[in-house]
């Protein structure tokens, strides 16, 4: 259950296969490629297609959700004293990390609650709720009962069958048996404030349960991307796709729970759709997506890349091996020398004029200048003769500019195509389909915001 959204994305393995379907493309493309990511296909990301989650009961209480509980009687928040290892109390007027609890979802109504320090809520022998358990079992399992008329009002039932209540602000006890009228005078009623929700592959599988998740995902894999999409990409001037896959695809069709099997078969289809010529459509394998600085250390990353490179080379001498730079690293060139030792290596960088406060107030021209000047020099700093080749594996024509015109978007897309076109391996837009228009390359192409020169 610790494999929540971040880890799923973090451990994603990326494959690239060429997407040329038309006869005029006689062979798999060599670099530099013009590609698009098939995000949200074999690895779920809720923001790309939220409707996939619609059939999950209590879909706002997915695994990993962070909740805060306010006692309606006291008007104070529950808190893990000392962040964990002690009692749960109810004396806080404001909520931050010690007052925030992470859900481990067992099913739609049963959960474990994890505190800031990593421990779990449990009920001790005198009926107090304490955060001392280091792993969850039956006495760490609680049922959440919501008020139909306003589902933010909840009661929490412990494994002894009784509801938790706040009799004094210094304790939370599992000893209320009577029914509720959900009013502000019931000490077992809390307002649950949902402060963060994760919506990834783990959450969709765990949320639906294996039977329904298999149905939902099998349908998604065969309908979200099909052969017509490959025709569209090819005729639009794209010649490769970057496909995120989860680490569990390695044990398909029997991945560890809660993941469901079948994504490997869907991936095989992509190779069939991409193939046009008598050669493998597998262009490259990316060993890891977006390792995050400073949590991922440089020595551990190099060891992983070395082992991964050797593993790929045992199977193919021709596929490029892509190594992702650490996200947020202060030294973009930190892998350059290391990667230069591997024949067929590629260094992947992701360029977004987002996710950093310095872009918050950029206007149209400042965004364009930043790409033209700063990104150009960033890319030049890691582009050398020989290996590694350079790859802008993710970019998007989206920004923090409000009220930008179509012409503004066109300029922003074009300058990125021009600058990232200097990457020696090529670039890939994030992503092909997305409910958010600018993030959907399909929408951007069909509506004339992006045009590619091939
Ligand atoms: C249960 O926890 C409460 C609150 O920390 C504490 O006062 C009580 O002594 C504990 N009971 C036992 C048997 O440890
Ligand atoms: C949910 O999980 C709890 C705890 O394991 C179990 O007692 C309950 O029967 C489950 N509910 C459903 C609907 O499966
Ligand atoms: C539900 O309860 C919350 C918390 O008391 C309140 O803020 C919200 O307005 C209520 N929603 C409705 C629809 O009454
Ligand atoms: C699966 O979905 C069906 C129909 O939507 C629903 O009735 C059923 O309760 C779901 N099963 C589980 C285990 O959630
Ligand atoms: C692909 O899916 C679209 C609908 O999303 C459909 O219109 C099209 O016919 C499908 N193409 C193939 C080859 O199945
Ligand atoms: C593909 O190429 C290989 C090696 O050149 C050859 O043996 C094989 O017959 C070719 N297959 C097809 C379908 O052309
Ligand atoms: C590159 O390989 C050489 C020879 O194996 C080795 O001495 C050197 O330390 C390596 N350089 C880096 C940066 O890993
Ligand atoms: C862009 O590069 C210029 C020239 O090196 C530098 O002065 C400027 O601070 C950079 N802009 C940002 C926002 O980092």
Keywords:
single chain; 454 residues; alpha/beta; TIM Barrel; Trefoil (Acidic Fibroblast Growth Factor, subunit A); 20 strands; 24% strand
Output the CATH class name of the largest domain.
Alpha Beta
Query: For the largest beta sheet, what order do the strands appear in spatially?
Result: 1-15-2-20-19-18-17-16
Please report the number of helical segments. Answer: 10
Ligand list? 2-acetamido-2-deoxy-beta-D-glucopyranose
Low-pLDDT segments: 1-13, 17-27
Helix content: 10-25%
DSSP strand count? 20
Mean of all residue-level pLDDT scores: 92
CATH topology annotation of the largest domain: TIM Barrel
Element pattern in H and E? HEEEEEEEEEEEEEEHHHEHEHEHEHEHEH
Instruction: State which percent range the strand residues make up.
Output: 15-25%
User: Considering the protein shown, what is the CATH homologous superfamily of the largest domain?
Assistant: Glycosidases
Q: What does the overall shape look like?
A: elongated
Q: Radius of gyration, Cα only, in angstroms?
A: 25 Å
The main sheet comes to:
8 strands, mixed, barrel
Structural class: alpha/beta
What is the straight-line distance between the termini? 45 Å
Number of domains: 2
CATH architecture of the largest domain: Alpha-Beta Barrel
What's the topology here?
Layout: H1 5-10, E1 13-18, E2 33-37, E3 66-71, E4 76-80, E5 88-92, E6 101-105, E7 110-114, E8 120-123, E9 129-133, E10 142-147, E11 150-157, E12 163-165, E13 173-176, E14 190-196, H2 201-208, H3 210-223, H4 227-235, E15 240-245, H5 263-274, E16 282-286, H6 298-315, E17 320-324, H7 336-339, E18 345-351, H8 364-382, E19 389-395, H9 406-420, E20 426-429, H10 441-446
Parallel strand pairs: 2-15, 2-20, 16-17, 17-18, 18-19, 19-20
Antiparallel strand pairs: 1-15, 1-16, 3-4, 3-6, 3-14, 4-5, 6-7, 7-10, 8-9, 10-11, 11-14, 12-13
Helix pairs in contact: 2-3, 8-9
Bound molecules: 2-acetamido-2-deoxy-beta-D-glucopyranose (8 copies).
């Amino acid at each position: 259950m610790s494999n929540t959204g971040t880890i799923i994305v973090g451990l994603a393995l990326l494959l690239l296969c060429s997407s040329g379907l038309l006869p005029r493309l006689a062979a798999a493309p060599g670099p530099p490629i013009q590609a698009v990511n098939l995000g949200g296909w074999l690895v779920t990301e809720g923001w790309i297609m939220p409707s996939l989650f619609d059939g999950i009961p209590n879909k706002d209480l997915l695994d990993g959700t962070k909740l805060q509980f306010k006692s309606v009687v006291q008007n104070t928040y529950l808190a893990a004293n000392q962040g964990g290892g002690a009692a749960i109390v109810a004396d806080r007027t404001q909520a931050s990390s010690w007052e925030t609890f992470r859900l481990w979802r067992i099913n739609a109504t049963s959960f474990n609650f994890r505190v800031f320090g990593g421990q779990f809520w449990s009920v001790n022998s005198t009926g107090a709720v304490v955060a001392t358990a280091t792993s969850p079992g039956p006495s760490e399992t609680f049922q959440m009962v919501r008020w139909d008329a306003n589902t933010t009002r909840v009661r929490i039932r412990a494994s002894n069958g009784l509801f938790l209540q706040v009799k004094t602000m210094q304790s939370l006890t599992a000893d209320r048996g009577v029914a509720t009228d959900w009013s502000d005078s019931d000490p077992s009623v809390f307002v649950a404030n949902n402060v963060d929700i994760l919506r990834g592959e783990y959450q969709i599988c765990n949320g639906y349960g294996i039977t329904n998740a298999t149905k939902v995902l099998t349908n998604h894999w065969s309908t979200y991307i099909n052969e017509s999409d490959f025709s569209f990409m090819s005729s639009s001037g794209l010649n490769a796709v970057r496909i995120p896959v989860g680490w569990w695809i390695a044990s398909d069709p029997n991945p560890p729970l809660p993941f469901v099997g079948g994504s490997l078969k869907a991936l095989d289809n992509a190779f069939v759709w991409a193939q046009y010529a008598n050669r493998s459509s597998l262009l490259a394998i990316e060993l890891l997506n977006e390792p995050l600085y400073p949590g991922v250390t440089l020595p551990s990353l190099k060891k992983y890349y070395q082992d991964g490179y050797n593993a790929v080379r045992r199977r193919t001498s021709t596929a490029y091996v892509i190594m992702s730079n650490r996200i947020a690293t202060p030294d973009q060139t930190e892998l350059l020398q290391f990667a230069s030792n591997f024949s067929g290596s590629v260094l992947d960088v992701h360029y977004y004029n987002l996710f950093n406060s310095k872009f918050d107030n950029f206007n149209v021209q400042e965004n364009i200048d930043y790409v033209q000047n700063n990104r150009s020099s960033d890319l030049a700093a890691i582009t050398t003769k020989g290996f590694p080749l350079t790859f802008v594996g993710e970019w998007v024509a989206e920004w923090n500019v409000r009220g930008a015109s179509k012409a503004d978007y066109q300029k922003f897309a074009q300058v990125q195509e021009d600058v990232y076109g200097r990457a020696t391996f090529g670039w890939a837009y994030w992503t092909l389909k997305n409910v958010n228009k600018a993030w959907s390359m399909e929408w951007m192409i069909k509506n004339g915001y992006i045009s590619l020169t091939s």
